[in-house]
Design brief:
Blueprint (H helix, E strand, L loop, with lengths): L22 H11 L18 H6 L6 E5 L2 E5 L4 H20 L5 E8 L1 H7 L12 H25 L3 E8 L3 H5 L17 H12 L6 E5 L6 H7 L3 E5 L8 H9 L3 E7 L13 H4 L1 H10 L6 H4 E5 L8 H20 L3
Parallel strand pairs: 3-4, 4-5, 5-6, 6-7, 7-8
Antiparallel strand pairs: 1-2
Helix pairs in contact: 1-3, 4-5, 5-7, 7-8
Length: about 350
């Protein structure tokens, strides 16, 4: 695990995706909203290659993929879909570089983690990579090498940034519990051994010298497993927590793991009432702290406020309002921890 005590995370940030297809507008909005902790925006509305799976396949080293009606499938060589994914990523990086001139501080970049990628990416026969342990291993190695190159590019473009790598793993719990369906839909892939899961995550984490966070907007996030694998932070939808998660949350906080708590809806809620009370939005976080017997004075240093998931499905107005609300809610948490 990285030395998170020496790394100052920002008080609020986004998860990743944004609505629309204008890279400059997205970068301007993100950097303007999250002045202390911006992130590289993702714009899946542009189509295949800008979606989270396609974007990450474009980062792979010596592995390629193309779009089939059923989804993304491994290819022998880079084709139009790979080139398009890489082109859009380059466009997003250009925009980020433009709006972070002179910036010094934490900056988050995102990619799909090895297990969600293995569950979504198809082998040439149409079945998921997840069903072949050797293919899973090759995919994780390719992702690690691709991320190494990507992170170096970001560091070159924004030299004052202290980069946080976020791996998106919404399918991780399904992988661990054997709930990922086969191509036919009639069966599920076998649960993957937890040690194999941890090992692959640890290997991918190792390519980055700075902090690594894992995001999942699914229920039952495996906090303990992610901590053992070396995650410095865990990003999750706060509304999906149950008291079953209390022990794991408490151990994570006491162990120095940063909690990226998603407390703002990722899509337009009815009216603006949900965004009118920053203090009320983080009341659940305060209640969790009291329930666990944690020092309320540690809230601001332990928690980063985020939307509950990506904002790709939101209207542009809601996305801007949600980001601003995250910043206000984080300020409320710091100013009034009790």
């Amino acid at each position: 695990m990285s030395e998170t005590t020496a790394f100052r995370w920002g008080p609020a940030t986004g998860v990743g995706s944004m609505p629309g297809g204008d890279a400059r507008e997205a970068a301007k909005t993100v950097t303007g909203s999250f002045e202390d902790f911006p992130h590289l925006a993702e714009l899946p509305a542009r189509g295949p290659g800008a979606d989270m799976i396609g974007r990450s396949t474009g980062m792979l080293a010596e592995l390629y993929a193309h779009v089939e009606p059923s989804g993304w499938r491994l290819s022998d060589r880079p084709g139009r879909d790979t080139r398009r994914a890489r082109s859009w990523l380059g466009e997003d990086l250009d925009a980020l570089e433009e709006f972070t001139q002179g910036y010094q501080g934490p900056l988050k970049v995102q990619a799909v983690g090895p297990w969600t990628l293995a569950a979504a990416l198809e082998r040439r026969g149409g079945e998921a990579v997840l069903g072949d342990p050797g293919a899973c291993r090759d995919l994780a190695q390719s992702l690690a090498e691709g991320l190494r190159t990507h992170l170096a590019d970001v560091a070159r473009r924004v030299p004052g940034a202290r980069i946080v790598l976020q791996l998106d793993e919404p399918s991780l719990t399904a992988v661990l519990r054997g709930r990922v369906r086969t191509a036919s839909g009639y069966r599920t892939h076998r649960a993957v051994d937890r040690q194999l899961v941890e090992g692959a995550l640890r290997d991918v984490f190792a390519v980055h010298e700075g902090p690594v966070a894992v995001h999942s907007c699914a229920p039952d996030v495996p906090f303990a497993l992610l901590r053992r694998a070396g995650a410095d932070g865990v990003s999750f939808d706060f509304s999906l927590l149950t008291e079953r998660d209390d022990d794991a949350i408490g151990e994570a906080v006491e162990g120095g793991t940063k909690l990226l708590a998603g407390i703002v809806p990722g899509t337009d809620a009815s009216g603006d009432a949900r965004l009118s009370d920053p203090a009320g939005s983080v009341m659940g976080v305060r209640k969790l702290w009291r329930r666990l017997g944690l020092d309320p004075g540690t809230l601001a240093e332990s928690v980063v406020i985020t939307p509950s998931c990506g904002l790709a499905g939101a209207s542009p107005d809601w996305a801007r309002a949600a980001q601003a609300h995250c910043v206000r809610a984080a300020r409320s948490l710091a100013d009034n921890p009790e």
